[in-house]
Input
Amino acid sequence: MFRFSVSALFLLLLIIASPVMGQLGGNSTYAFLNLTHSARVASLGGKVVSIPDDDLNLSFHNPSNLNEGMSNHLVMNYVNYFSDINFGYVSYARHYEGVGSFAAGLNYINYGKFTGADQVGNITGEFRAAEYSLNLIFSRAIDSLFRIGVNVKPVYSMLESYHSFGLLTDIGITYTNRDKLFSAGLVLRNAGFQIKPYHEAHREPLPFEILLGFSQKLRHAPFRFSLVAHNLQKPDLSYTDPAKNTGEFDPITGDPLPENKWEKFADNFMRHMIFGIEFIPVDNFYIRAGYNYQRRQELKISNRTAMVGFSWGFGVRISKFHLSYGRASYHLAGASNHFSISTDISSFSAN
Output
């Protein structure tokens, strides 16, 4: 019965997701659902779906990462973003033997305070904008190698006098080999619909995404490597900048040179890739770094690329708490700062 339910759910989500398969950033609402809260995930490039350890934050990106080792764990995240925007995520998990693992979390973003004005510029007062989603996660082992997970996300958005409510779902499956060194994860994220749109006459597309990730930990060295292929629902992530003049013309005929198809293929392939590495010299200290090719290509300044697209961070365990910091470079204008704290509540009552 359980296997049949999993297959039926995958089929249902594919049907729900099909109208939004071609959508990407800038073309959908509830975009805050794709923001990265976890300092660890931010430092690894922004998306991680395949690391199989007891970090409860990982279940936000892939619900099948939720496992019995996270039972009674609590995580809290805060991100100091751009232009006084801040967002965060808090979650708690519990495992029930013979049933599965459950987690509940709250995801929010606060856009801050704005000054309102009418059509001729007269100040009308102040207003705020914020969005919230509740994360209700369930995960269960299929066998010793595979886990399946589902995250049901009611979403509420309040932008000045405009309000919207939606219902979205993530579904994921994780494979971990027997020696726990290699793992892979597949996730369908943000499939669903708007129950109440901002305007009754127009329902907007949602930020649906398909991700496939791999993780490899070395047996005799303190390193773990991760690779994530994101936005697989949209094969072509490249775009043509109408303001960019390449100036590539045949010097004899003056005709534009033909497009280098291999170069275009390689560029588009890399836009789907996010790379991450963790250095774990001891159990209580971690150093992490990541590279997001698409972020670098789309946000860099050609004559000053700097560290755009790169990210880094570290984590340390102090007493009963895991503290993490992550920093992701988006542009020369600034970077995002991520702070995470997690703890096992059971450890406070242990003898």
The helical segments are 2-17, 39-43, 58-61, 261-271, 293-299. The CA atoms of residues 249 and 256 lie 4 Å apart. The chain has one domain: 2-241+272-348. The chain has a mean pLDDT of 87.
